[in-house]
Amino acid sequence: MTDTVTESPTQATSTLPASGSSMTGAALSRRPGRWIDGWNPEDEGQWDREGRAIARRNLGWSIFAEFLGFVVWQLWSIVAVTLPAAGFDLDTGQVFWLISIPSLVGATLRIPYSFLVPKFGGRNWTIISAGLLLVPTTALAICVSNPETPFPVLLGAAALAGFGGGNFASSMSNITFFYPAKEKGWALGLNAAGGNIGAAVAQLVVPIAITIGAGVALNLPVAGLLWIPLILVAMFGAWKYMDNLSNAKADFAGSAAALREPHLWVLAVLYIGTFGSFIGFASVFPKLIADQFPTFSTFAVGGASLSLAFLGALVGSLSRPYGGRLADRFGGANVTMAAFASMGLVTLAVILTLPLGNFWVFLGCFLLLFASAGIGNGSTYRMIPAVFSARAGIDGHGVSTQRKAAAALGLISAIGAFGGFLIPQALNLSFQSTGGYDGAFVVFVAVYVFLLALTWAVYARRSSRFAEHRI
Question: Among 250, 266, 298, where does a domain finish?
């Protein structure tokens, strides 16, 4: 039985716009389970009266839940580096697998996660997806409490952290339905940045938490247990304050059309180079510092230890919105090319300065690399709707352009996340083959040069089909 609650005529009339306005202010109706019918953010009357407040409330809790998803996704990037010191018998290759497997699983989960919001409802799926974070945090706490835990069990626990990576896709999909087109970019940017910062917070907090008051030992289970109360808060907040939209529908046809679009794959490759570099280097940065500069791996602060690895993820997260803003002003292709040029030059600087053995030069180079990747992340994401819009103008079949572009955003974000697996594994292969990381960095320089050339050839070259469009 459905109990529909609507606004009274007095309420509706009192908030209608003046006569002659195009704003209709259609009333919303609500059903049990916090389902909302009649949602239309493009209806300015409805949006001004109550839609904006509802959207902002859902955005706030979505950001918090996604933030925790990124935290959990990155837990093993810190914990794996500390395991040998805690008595676990692991070689370098095994540590790299523990670091990279969450990104592989998370990237894969992003694809189905993007379709689950329409199936379950945004509120309901946020509760479920946040609740799933209890599994990897509990598994981590159990597995790292015993140095005799076999490596396959540790690897399985690390793979479960991929649940956190999948949350990005469903969170972005959910918020897309809440905002009008004119405010969608701002809302999605906040949602993405709020999640990305979770990687930095995890790398800042976990080293402190596992060492404070632990004496000479490491209290590794705290790395997982610490987040359980916050996950429960996110679940409660989603249950109490978020909403399900009945008009949120999965666009399988739009996704299928996007997958047939050649430029989806070009943009996905570019996104691997930008977002993939951000999340890949963020995951592996604590390991690189520990290997290259062990005396700088942690700093004693009172009775705890602090790692500066969190600065990389923080700089990359904060620079992402500027990439979008610069793309609006100078064009996404131009900013993306500049980002790849910077990433290539900075990576080359890392190769040349590593023999100096200067930690602060190393840290400075990597912070520039993270800033460049963050800017490229924002500019590449901004290119996606521009490319699809231009394609409609070039080819003259723009009927489903908006649907394809929306689907492409989710698919490209999923494909790009595989960079979080590829970068640690490239560094692992380099170490296993040569005993150092220079080989991988040389490959990264070559890849960035290739991606710069690809961006120019397809989207910025004067004779390109896109030359008349500001991509």
Answer: 250
